[in-house]
Every structure is written in C-alpha cells, then in structure tokens.
Specification:
The chain is mainly alpha-helical and about 190 residues long. The chain has 8 helices and 3 strands; from the N terminus they run αααβααααβαβ. Helix 2 crosses helix 3. About 35% of the residues are buried.
C-alpha cells in the first residue's frame, strides 16, 4: 500500500468490517431490535426472497440493502458534521471497501456459513452477539462500558477521534447497545482531522 491517507487504515480488516456491519444490521431489523425498517431481510425470510433474483450473491445483496437502510435511519436520527458512524466512515475507507466487494461476490460460497449464522440471530444483546461472532475483544467491551450516552438521548459519542483504527470501529458497533428495542441511539466519533 502506498503512503498517505490510506496508510492509516492498516489495522482495519475490511472483511472484519463487513462482518461487523452485517451483525449489527441484523440486530437492528424489525424482527429483532426494531431500530430500522427492514423486516428479517438478513434473516431466513430475506434468503428466501432474494435467492430467486440473486442465486449466487443474495447474501451480499441482503447485507448491502440492510446496511443502507441502517445508514439512512441513523442519519435521520443524528448526523453531526465532521463525524463518522458505523455505516459511514471516511471516504477513503468506504472506497477501499467498495473496491473489494466484487472479490467477495466471486467467493460468495465461502461467506455462506457466516450469513447463515447471522440469519439465525434473534437476540438484541449487541455485545454478546459481536463477541459470539469473534468480532470484538474483551478489551473492546471493557472500553465500551466506560462510554456514556449523550444527554440528548439520541446519540453516544466515542471519546476517541476516528483515526482509522479498528478499536474505534469496534466501539461504534458496541455502542449500539445503548439503544433499547424500538429506540435507536446513534453512535458516532469525530474525525481526527476535524
């Protein structure tokens, strides 16, 4: 990788980010925590519906769709300037994620066990689900426990600025646990250059 802005993302594994987003996206669906308006699209119902039109890549179509719905819902609730959230990181990182998407589609069968586990999720315990999928560490969970919800009740700010590190992204995902069923609290972090 060349130097410059993209070199600060060396510790974010993009496959890990995709899995992290997908688990949180599933937990927020209407048949789970009711944070965004998608009904079991990442569940077994979504597989049944989308497999017809996307026989090989339906899992990724499901994931992309629900992640976009989650991003839109979070932006409706709380979208401060010069910040990032789980669904909208820096442009450079999002571009890198988009550029490897095609490779994942080519290897869609290797992702099937992961997506089948995601489809079976019903609980809304964010930390437990992320830990069960081996997407966060005990240290991430401990750091998250120290973060306080904003007084407005709509958001939770990660205390460290986003400098492209995995830990901040893990905290963004874990902080969805500040939400209650039917009541979304949007986790965000300020950009390092803001």
């Amino acid at each position: 990788m060349m130097g410059g802005a993209s070199s600060i993302y060396n510790d974010i594994d993009l496959a890990w980010l995709m899995r992290l987003r997908t688990v949180v996206a599933r937990l927020g669906e209407m048949d789970c925590a009711r944070w965004w308006n998608s009904q079991g699209q990442l569940g077994r119902q979504g597989v049944t519906v989308l497999r017809r039109g996307f026989p090989r890549t339906h899992y990724f179509a499901q994931a992309k769709s629900v992640q976009m719905i989650a991003a839109a819902r979070c932006a409706e609730i709380f979208d401060p300037p010069a910040s990032v959230n789980l669904w909208r990181l820096t442009d450079d990182l999002e571009d890198r994620l988009d550029s490897i998407w095609e490779g994942w589609l080519e290897a869609a069968a290797t992702w099937q066990p992961f997506f089948e586990r995601v489809a079976a999720l019903k609980a809304v315990d964010v930390a437990a689900a992320l830990k069960d999928f081996d997407l966060v560490t005990d240290a991430d969970i401990e750091a998250h426990a120290k973060i306080k919800k904003s007084s407005d009740g709509r958001s939770i700010q990660i205390p460290e600025k986003f400098e492209g590190h995995r830990r901040t992204v893990a905290l963004l995902a874990l902080s969805f646990s500040a939400s209650a069923p039917g009541s979304l609290v949007v986790p965000y972090a300020r950009k390092a250059d803001a």
